[in-house]
Protein backbone atom coordinates (compact mmCIF):
# COMPACT_ATOMS: atom_id res chain seq x y z
CA UNK A 1 0.00 0.00 0.00
CA UNK A 2 1.27 3.49 -0.85
CA UNK A 3 2.49 5.38 2.17
CA UNK A 4 0.29 8.35 3.07
CA UNK A 5 1.92 11.71 2.46
CA UNK A 6 2.39 13.86 5.55
CA UNK A 7 -0.13 16.67 5.74
CA UNK A 8 0.37 20.21 6.98
CA UNK A 9 -2.56 22.30 8.21
CA UNK A 10 -2.44 26.06 7.94
CA UNK A 11 -4.56 28.74 9.58
CA UNK A 12 -4.66 32.48 10.28
CA UNK A 13 -5.97 33.68 13.63
CA UNK A 14 -6.42 36.81 15.76
CA UNK A 15 -6.35 40.21 14.07
CA UNK A 16 -5.79 40.17 10.32
CA UNK A 17 -2.63 41.72 8.92
CA UNK A 18 -1.60 42.62 5.36
CA UNK A 19 0.86 40.00 4.13
CA UNK A 20 -0.92 37.02 5.70
CA UNK A 21 -1.90 35.91 2.18
CA UNK A 22 1.71 36.02 1.05
CA UNK A 23 2.56 33.78 4.01
CA UNK A 24 -0.28 31.34 3.19
CA UNK A 25 1.01 31.18 -0.39
CA UNK A 26 4.58 30.56 0.72
CA UNK A 27 3.65 27.85 3.23
CA UNK A 28 1.41 26.08 0.72
CA UNK A 29 3.84 26.16 -2.18
CA UNK A 30 6.92 25.24 -0.12
CA UNK A 31 5.01 22.35 1.48
CA UNK A 32 3.84 21.03 -1.90
CA UNK A 33 7.35 21.44 -3.32
CA UNK A 34 8.61 19.22 -0.50
CA UNK A 35 5.89 16.63 -1.16
CA UNK A 36 3.53 17.38 1.71
CA UNK A 37 -0.23 17.59 1.40
CA UNK A 38 -1.72 20.87 2.60
CA UNK A 39 -5.05 21.48 4.30
CA UNK A 40 -6.34 24.98 4.92
CA UNK A 41 -8.29 25.57 8.12
CA UNK A 42 -10.75 28.46 7.79
CA UNK A 43 -11.52 31.06 10.49
CA UNK A 44 -8.59 30.38 12.77
CA UNK A 45 -9.00 27.85 15.55
CA UNK A 46 -12.77 28.05 14.99
CA UNK A 47 -12.29 26.04 11.80
CA UNK A 48 -11.13 23.11 13.93
CA UNK A 49 -14.53 23.06 15.61
CA UNK A 50 -16.66 23.72 12.53
CA UNK A 51 -14.47 21.41 10.43
CA UNK A 52 -13.97 24.09 7.83
CA UNK A 53 -10.97 22.27 6.41
CA UNK A 54 -10.16 22.24 2.71
CA UNK A 55 -7.30 20.54 0.81
CA UNK A 56 -5.11 23.20 -0.82
CA UNK A 57 -3.28 22.87 -4.11
CA UNK A 58 -0.89 25.34 -5.63
CA UNK A 59 -3.75 27.03 -7.58
CA UNK A 60 -5.61 27.81 -4.34
CA UNK A 61 -2.97 30.41 -3.55
CA UNK A 62 -2.65 31.93 -7.03
CA UNK A 63 -3.04 35.67 -7.34
CA UNK A 64 -3.21 36.38 -3.60
CA UNK A 65 0.24 37.79 -2.81
CA UNK A 66 -0.97 41.33 -3.47
CA UNK A 67 -4.21 41.04 -1.48
CA UNK A 68 -4.67 42.45 2.02
CA UNK A 69 -6.57 40.56 4.73
CA UNK A 70 -6.53 36.77 4.74
CA UNK A 71 -8.23 34.44 2.27
CA UNK A 72 -8.55 31.90 5.11
CA UNK A 73 -10.54 34.44 7.17
CA UNK A 74 -9.80 34.90 10.83
CA UNK A 75 -11.78 34.72 14.04
CA UNK A 76 -11.43 34.78 17.79
CA UNK A 77 -12.22 31.37 19.26
CA UNK A 78 -13.22 31.04 22.89
CA UNK A 79 -13.58 27.22 22.73
CA UNK A 80 -9.86 26.82 22.06
CA UNK A 81 -9.01 28.42 25.40
CA UNK A 82 -10.59 25.48 27.28
CA UNK A 83 -9.11 22.00 27.77
CA UNK A 84 -12.31 20.34 26.51
CA UNK A 85 -12.27 22.57 23.44
CA UNK A 86 -8.68 21.71 22.62
CA UNK A 87 -9.53 17.99 22.92
CA UNK A 88 -12.24 18.47 20.27
CA UNK A 89 -9.73 20.39 18.12
CA UNK A 90 -7.25 17.53 18.45
CA UNK A 91 -9.95 15.01 17.47
CA UNK A 92 -10.67 17.05 14.32
CA UNK A 93 -6.99 17.29 13.44
CA UNK A 94 -6.60 13.52 13.82
CA UNK A 95 -9.75 12.85 11.81
CA UNK A 96 -8.49 15.00 8.93
CA UNK A 97 -5.03 13.40 8.96
CA UNK A 98 -3.18 16.63 9.76
CA UNK A 99 0.34 15.85 11.03
CA UNK A 100 1.56 19.38 11.79
CA UNK A 101 0.17 22.90 11.91
CA UNK A 102 1.43 26.29 10.79
CA UNK A 103 -0.40 29.08 12.61
CA UNK A 104 -0.16 32.70 11.51
CA UNK A 105 -1.16 35.34 14.05
CA UNK A 106 -0.22 37.40 17.06
CA UNK A 107 0.48 36.84 20.71
CA UNK A 108 -2.82 35.08 21.49
CA UNK A 109 -2.56 32.78 18.50
CA UNK A 110 0.93 31.69 19.53
CA UNK A 111 -0.16 31.27 23.16
CA UNK A 112 -2.94 28.92 22.06
CA UNK A 113 -0.54 27.08 19.75
CA UNK A 114 1.96 26.60 22.55
CA UNK A 115 -0.59 25.20 24.99
CA UNK A 116 -2.02 22.85 22.37
CA UNK A 117 1.38 21.69 21.13
CA UNK A 118 2.46 20.91 24.69
CA UNK A 119 -0.74 19.13 25.69
CA UNK A 120 -0.76 16.85 22.64
CA UNK A 121 2.94 16.74 21.78
CA UNK A 122 1.85 18.03 18.39
CA UNK A 123 4.24 19.87 16.03
CA UNK A 124 3.28 23.50 15.46
CA UNK A 125 5.29 26.28 13.90
CA UNK A 126 4.09 29.87 14.31
CA UNK A 127 4.48 32.80 11.96
CA UNK A 128 4.21 36.29 13.51
CA UNK A 129 1.38 38.09 11.74
CA UNK A 130 0.28 41.27 13.48
CA UNK A 131 0.43 44.94 12.55
CA UNK A 132 1.54 45.78 16.12
CA UNK A 133 5.09 44.36 15.71
CA UNK A 134 4.92 43.41 19.38
CA UNK A 135 6.39 39.91 19.32
CA UNK A 136 9.72 39.29 20.96
CA UNK A 137 12.41 37.50 18.96
CA UNK A 138 11.72 39.04 15.58
CA UNK A 139 12.71 42.45 14.26
CA UNK A 140 9.51 42.62 12.22
CA UNK A 141 6.08 41.01 12.16
CA UNK A 142 4.02 40.58 9.01
CA UNK A 143 1.71 43.55 8.44
CA UNK A 144 3.66 46.09 10.43
CA UNK A 145 5.36 47.76 7.47
CA UNK A 146 2.11 48.09 5.53
CA UNK A 147 0.29 49.57 8.54
CA UNK A 148 3.16 51.99 9.09
CA UNK A 149 2.92 53.17 5.50
CA UNK A 150 -0.85 53.54 5.80
CA UNK A 151 -0.39 55.68 8.90
CA UNK A 152 2.24 57.79 7.17
CA UNK A 153 0.00 58.45 4.18
CA UNK A 154 -2.99 59.31 6.38
CA UNK A 155 -0.95 61.69 8.53
CA UNK A 156 0.45 63.39 5.41
CA UNK A 157 -3.12 64.17 4.38
CA UNK A 158 -4.13 65.38 7.83
CA UNK A 159 -1.04 67.59 7.86
CA UNK A 160 -2.41 69.53 4.85
CA UNK A 161 -5.56 70.52 6.68
CA UNK A 162 -3.75 70.99 10.02
CA UNK A 163 -1.39 73.47 8.38
CA UNK A 164 -4.11 75.34 6.52
CA UNK A 165 -6.15 75.84 9.69
CA UNK A 166 -3.16 76.14 12.03
CA UNK A 167 -4.41 73.35 14.24
CA UNK A 168 -3.01 70.95 16.78
CA UNK A 169 -4.00 67.40 15.81
CA UNK A 170 -3.95 64.31 17.99
CA UNK A 171 -3.99 61.27 15.73
CA UNK A 172 -4.74 57.90 17.26
CA UNK A 173 -3.09 54.80 15.82
CA UNK A 174 -3.31 51.11 16.79
CA UNK A 175 -0.95 49.51 19.29
CA UNK A 176 -2.73 48.40 22.44
CA UNK A 177 0.37 47.42 24.35
CA UNK A 178 3.15 48.54 22.06
CA UNK A 179 4.15 51.89 20.65
CA UNK A 180 6.00 50.74 17.51
CA UNK A 181 3.37 52.07 15.12
CA UNK A 182 3.02 55.37 17.01
CA UNK A 183 6.74 55.94 17.39
CA UNK A 184 7.85 55.08 13.88
CA UNK A 185 4.66 56.50 12.37
CA UNK A 186 5.57 59.80 14.03
CA UNK A 187 9.10 59.76 12.62
CA UNK A 188 7.93 58.81 9.13
CA UNK A 189 5.33 61.56 9.01
CA UNK A 190 7.42 64.25 10.69
CA UNK A 191 5.05 64.51 13.65
CA UNK A 192 5.98 66.65 16.62
CA UNK A 193 5.53 63.93 19.23
CA UNK A 194 4.41 60.39 19.95
CA UNK A 195 2.62 59.20 23.06
CA UNK A 196 3.26 55.51 23.62
CA UNK A 197 2.20 52.96 26.23
CA UNK A 198 5.76 52.03 27.20
CA UNK A 199 6.40 55.39 28.88
CA UNK A 200 5.14 55.60 32.46
CA UNK A 201 2.21 58.01 32.13
CA UNK A 202 0.81 60.13 29.40
CA UNK A 203 0.88 63.09 31.80
CA UNK A 204 4.70 62.94 31.86
CA UNK A 205 4.83 62.93 28.11
CA UNK A 206 2.30 65.71 27.75
CA UNK A 207 4.10 67.84 30.29
CA UNK A 208 7.28 67.43 28.30
CA UNK A 209 5.52 68.45 25.13
CA UNK A 210 3.91 71.47 26.67
CA UNK A 211 7.19 72.50 28.31
CA UNK A 212 8.87 72.47 24.92
CA UNK A 213 5.97 74.34 23.37
CA UNK A 214 3.74 72.63 20.84
CA UNK A 215 4.13 75.08 18.11
CA UNK A 216 7.25 77.15 18.34
CA UNK A 217 7.52 78.77 14.96
CA UNK A 218 5.20 76.27 13.30
CA UNK A 219 1.68 76.83 12.21
CA UNK A 220 0.47 73.29 12.94
CA UNK A 221 1.39 70.39 15.14
CA UNK A 222 0.72 66.69 15.01
CA UNK A 223 0.95 64.29 17.91
CA UNK A 224 0.57 60.55 17.31
CA UNK A 225 -1.09 58.71 20.19
CA UNK A 226 -1.13 54.92 20.57
CA UNK A 227 -4.60 53.55 21.29
CA UNK A 228 -4.02 52.02 24.70
CA UNK A 229 -5.30 52.06 28.27
CA UNK A 230 -1.88 53.45 29.24
CA UNK A 231 -2.17 56.52 27.04
CA UNK A 232 -5.95 56.88 27.37
CA UNK A 233 -6.18 57.38 23.60
CA UNK A 234 -6.17 60.55 21.48
CA UNK A 235 -9.56 61.81 22.68
CA UNK A 236 -8.48 61.70 26.30
CA UNK A 237 -5.14 63.38 25.62
CA UNK A 238 -6.83 66.10 23.55
CA UNK A 239 -9.31 66.82 26.36
CA UNK A 240 -6.48 67.26 28.84
CA UNK A 241 -4.68 69.69 26.56
CA UNK A 242 -7.85 71.64 25.70
CA UNK A 243 -8.55 72.14 29.39
CA UNK A 244 -5.05 73.36 30.21
CA UNK A 245 -4.36 75.23 27.00
CA UNK A 246 -7.54 76.67 25.55
CA UNK A 247 -5.47 78.81 23.15
CA UNK A 248 -4.80 75.78 20.93
CA UNK A 249 -7.23 74.82 18.17
CA UNK A 250 -7.28 71.12 18.96
CA UNK A 251 -8.65 68.33 16.75
CA UNK A 252 -8.67 64.54 17.00
CA UNK A 253 -8.49 61.95 14.26
CA UNK A 254 -8.77 58.22 14.95
CA UNK A 255 -7.39 56.18 12.08
CA UNK A 256 -9.07 52.93 13.18
CA UNK A 257 -9.46 49.85 11.02
CA UNK A 258 -8.07 51.40 7.84
CA UNK A 259 -4.68 50.61 9.41
CA UNK A 260 -5.30 46.88 8.97
CA UNK A 261 -6.26 46.99 5.32
CA UNK A 262 -4.64 47.45 1.95
CA UNK A 263 -2.28 45.68 -0.37
CA UNK A 264 0.88 44.64 1.51
CA UNK A 265 4.08 46.57 0.88
CA UNK A 266 7.02 44.90 -0.84
CA UNK A 267 8.71 44.55 2.57
CA UNK A 268 5.73 42.68 4.02
CA UNK A 269 5.38 40.43 0.99
CA UNK A 270 9.05 39.51 1.13
CA UNK A 271 9.00 38.99 4.90
CA UNK A 272 5.87 36.81 4.68
CA UNK A 273 7.30 34.80 1.77
CA UNK A 274 10.55 34.14 3.61
CA UNK A 275 8.80 33.26 6.86
CA UNK A 276 6.30 30.99 5.12
CA UNK A 277 9.08 29.09 3.40
CA UNK A 278 11.07 28.92 6.66
CA UNK A 279 8.07 27.45 8.53
CA UNK A 280 8.21 24.37 6.31
CA UNK A 281 11.98 24.08 6.70
CA UNK A 282 11.47 24.25 10.46
CA UNK A 283 9.08 21.30 10.30
CA UNK A 284 11.48 19.39 8.02
CA UNK A 285 14.12 20.18 10.63
CA UNK A 286 11.95 18.53 13.33
CA UNK A 287 11.46 21.87 15.04
CA UNK A 288 8.25 22.29 17.00
CA UNK A 289 6.84 24.90 19.31
CA UNK A 290 8.79 27.63 17.61
CA UNK A 291 7.94 30.91 15.98
CA UNK A 292 9.78 31.97 12.86
CA UNK A 293 11.62 35.19 13.60
CA UNK A 294 13.88 37.40 11.58
CA UNK A 295 16.85 39.19 13.13
CA UNK A 296 19.46 41.15 11.23
CA UNK A 297 17.94 39.71 8.06
CA UNK A 298 18.53 36.11 9.23
CA UNK A 299 15.74 33.64 9.89
CA UNK A 300 15.70 32.33 13.47
CA UNK A 301 13.62 29.81 15.37
CA UNK A 302 12.23 31.43 18.50
CA UNK A 303 10.70 29.10 21.13
CA UNK A 304 7.03 30.03 21.65
CA UNK A 305 7.61 30.59 25.33
CA UNK A 306 10.20 33.30 24.60
CA UNK A 307 8.12 35.02 21.94
CA UNK A 308 5.09 35.14 24.20
CA UNK A 309 6.53 35.86 27.63
CA UNK A 310 9.15 38.47 26.83
CA UNK A 311 8.31 42.08 26.11
CA UNK A 312 9.84 43.35 22.94
CA UNK A 313 11.96 46.36 23.83
CA UNK A 314 11.19 49.63 22.11
CA UNK A 315 13.96 52.07 21.26
CA UNK A 316 13.18 54.99 23.54
CA UNK A 317 15.92 57.09 21.95
CA UNK A 318 13.56 57.50 19.03
CA UNK A 319 11.39 59.79 21.16
CA UNK A 320 14.38 62.07 21.35
CA UNK A 321 14.82 61.79 17.60
CA UNK A 322 11.24 62.99 17.13
CA UNK A 323 11.83 65.87 19.53
CA UNK A 324 15.03 67.03 17.85
CA UNK A 325 13.75 66.67 14.31
CA UNK A 326 10.60 68.64 15.05
CA UNK A 327 12.37 71.69 16.48
P1 LIG B 1 -3.59 40.34 17.49
O1 LIG B 1 -2.22 40.59 18.10
O2 LIG B 1 -3.68 40.88 16.12
O3 LIG B 1 -4.73 40.70 18.39
P2 LIG B 1 -3.74 37.61 18.42
O4 LIG B 1 -3.28 36.35 17.81
O5 LIG B 1 -3.01 38.08 19.66
O6 LIG B 1 -3.71 38.73 17.28
P3 LIG B 1 -6.08 36.95 20.01
O7 LIG B 1 -7.52 37.24 19.77
O8 LIG B 1 -5.48 37.39 21.27
O9 LIG B 1 -5.30 37.52 18.72
O10 LIG B 1 -5.87 35.36 19.92
C1 LIG B 1 -6.36 34.61 18.81
C2 LIG B 1 -6.94 33.30 19.28
O11 LIG B 1 -5.91 32.51 19.90
C3 LIG B 1 -8.03 33.39 20.33
O12 LIG B 1 -9.29 33.69 19.77
C4 LIG B 1 -7.99 32.00 20.94
O13 LIG B 1 -8.69 31.07 20.14
C5 LIG B 1 -6.50 31.68 20.89
N1 LIG B 1 -5.91 31.96 22.22
C6 LIG B 1 -5.54 33.16 22.71
N2 LIG B 1 -5.10 33.04 23.98
C7 LIG B 1 -5.21 31.72 24.30
C8 LIG B 1 -4.93 30.93 25.47
N3 LIG B 1 -4.45 31.48 26.59
N4 LIG B 1 -5.19 29.60 25.41
C9 LIG B 1 -5.66 29.02 24.29
N5 LIG B 1 -5.95 29.71 23.18
C10 LIG B 1 -5.73 31.03 23.17
TrEMBL record:
The pathway that the record names for this protein is: Carbohydrate degradation; glycolysis; D-glyceraldehyde 3-phosphate and glycerone phosphate from D-glucose: step 3/4
Task: Indicate the transmembrane segments per the record.
Answer: none
Which terms in the GO cellular component ontology are assigned? 6-phosphofructokinase complex
Activity modulation comment: Allosterically activated by ADP and other diphosphonucleosides, and allosterically inhibited by phosphoenolpyruvate.
* Positions contributing to ADP binding: 25-29, 159, 190-192, 216, 218-220
Q: Which residues bind ATP?
A: 15, 76-77, 106-109
Q: Name all Phosphofructokinase domain ranges.
A: 8-282
| Cofactor(s) needed | Mg(2+)
Keywords for this entry? Allosteric enzyme, ATP-binding, Cytoplasm, Glycolysis, Kinase, Magnesium, Metal-binding, Nucleotide-binding, Transferase
Major enzyme class? transferase
- State the compartments where it is located: Cytoplasm
One Pfam family for this entry, by name?
A: PFK
Tell me which family the UniProt entry assigns to this protein: Belongs to the phosphofructokinase type A (PFKA) family. ATP-dependent PFK group I subfamily. Prokaryotic clade 'B1' sub-subfamily.
Q: What does this protein do?
A: Catalyzes the phosphorylation of D-fructose 6-phosphate to fructose 1,6-bisphosphate by ATP, the first committing step of glycolysis.
Q: How does it assemble?
A: Homotetramer.
Protein name, UniProt field: ATP-dependent 6-phosphofructokinase
Ranked from the top, the taxonomy reads:
Bacteria, Pseudomonadati, Bacteroidota, Bacteroidia, Bacteroidales
Amino acid sequence: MAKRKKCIGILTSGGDAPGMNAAIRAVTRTAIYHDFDVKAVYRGYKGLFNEEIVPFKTQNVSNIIQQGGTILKTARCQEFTTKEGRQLAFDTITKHGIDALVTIGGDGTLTGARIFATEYNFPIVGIPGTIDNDLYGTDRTIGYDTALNTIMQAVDKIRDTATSHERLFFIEVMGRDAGFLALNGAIASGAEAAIIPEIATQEDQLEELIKNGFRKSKNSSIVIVAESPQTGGAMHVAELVKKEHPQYDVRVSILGHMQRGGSPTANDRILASRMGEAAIYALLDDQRNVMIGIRNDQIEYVPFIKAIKNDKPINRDLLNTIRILST
